[in-house]
Amino acid sequence: MNITNSTGILDTINSRRSINNFNSTKTITEAKINELIRYTTKAPTAFNVQNWHFVAVHTSEQKTKLKNLAYGQQKVEDAAVTFIVSGLLEPQNLIKHSLDSSLKDNVLSQEMVDGWINAVSNMYSDNPILQRDEAIRSASLAAMTMMLSAEAMGMVSCPLIGFDPNGVKEAFSLPELAVPAMLITVGFEADGNWPQKPRIDNTEVLTIV
Ligand SMILES: Cc1cc2nc3c(=O)[nH]c(=O)nc-3n(C[C@H](O)[C@H](O)[C@H](O)COP(=O)(O)O)c2cc1C
């Protein structure tokens, strides 16, 4: 099969790196933040439940507050914006609202919507481990979509797990049901970053059956 790269997505995947040194003089507008989140929320979620939440931290006072909760990682202060990317627990209480517009726009029938609401309720209501798995899955798919979208918009990024999730949840008044999964710094590159890091060969990570 001949795979063409008509949209440039493969170039973006091939060239993305996690950036450590950001240009601290460059900012982005709230309009750009909104544009980035519109691309980010094109990521898939189970049953289209969209169990995610984002905080865009971009003022210097709030960035310093977040840096202190991210073990002093300087990129949180230097990047134009850092997103707190969370997944939400209890998808059974979100699904009806999440599917409202699909019903209204006739993308899904009432019968299909009712079936999905039932399925989500049956699958997740008594299963806190699956709720947490789904929160992390949805947030992770959003985070990757955000990083690739940022690249396509001419920016760079870095995912971070080095932060205090309980401290961040409290300091930034995240919803009760939020599980902060990752921080994503987004902005513009300064000098002195690593080149792209090589990957383990397919022969070690891939089984084809
Ligand atoms: C879940 C996750 C957490 C990470 N946490 C941090 C972090 O706290 N600080 C940091 O500098 N890099 C962090 N990274 C970046 C990784 O070190 C980086 O993705 C990895 O070395 C591969 O490099 P690349 O993204 O440039 O290909 C994290 C990456 C992921 C996926």
From TrEMBL:
Keyword Lipid metabolism assigned: no
Family annotation (InterPro entries): Nitroreductase (IPR029479), Nitroreductase-like (IPR000415)
Domain Nitroreductase per the UniProt entry, residue ranges: 13-187
Record has Oxidoreductase as a keyword: yes
Single Gene Ontology MF annotation: oxidoreductase activity
Tree of life domain: Bacteria
Keyword list, A-Z: Oxidoreductase
Pfam name, any one: Nitroreductase
Family, as annotated: Belongs to the nitroreductase family.
Protein name: Nitroreductase
